[in-house]
Amino acid sequence: MSESGTPLPPATFEFLVFSLKMQAEMRLGLLKLSEEMDDAPDLPAARHAIDMLGMLAEKTRGNLSVEEQRLVENSLTELRFRFVQVSESGAKTVSGEKPQASE
Length: 103
What we know:
Blueprint: H1 13-27, H2 43-60, H3 66-95
Helix pairs in contact: 1-2, 1-3, 2-3
């Protein structure tokens, strides 16, 4: 338990991957935990979280179960796709084009 009495999740590889993924999603502006949070994407911070996950994938290559490998690869694929979407959306907004609604 943490000092506040809230139980902490077990320290697993899956939790580490989900933590990095959530951090990237928050930095991309895709996930908001409170109304006070800024919606503006922080692309350099998002890129850093994605790169951290990529480094983790590289360093653990050959040492993961099939499920763990799939989790990392799927997370990276999704995050990289979302990064491109948010980057392009931001570029269109800056150039004066109206961004298209995402699915």
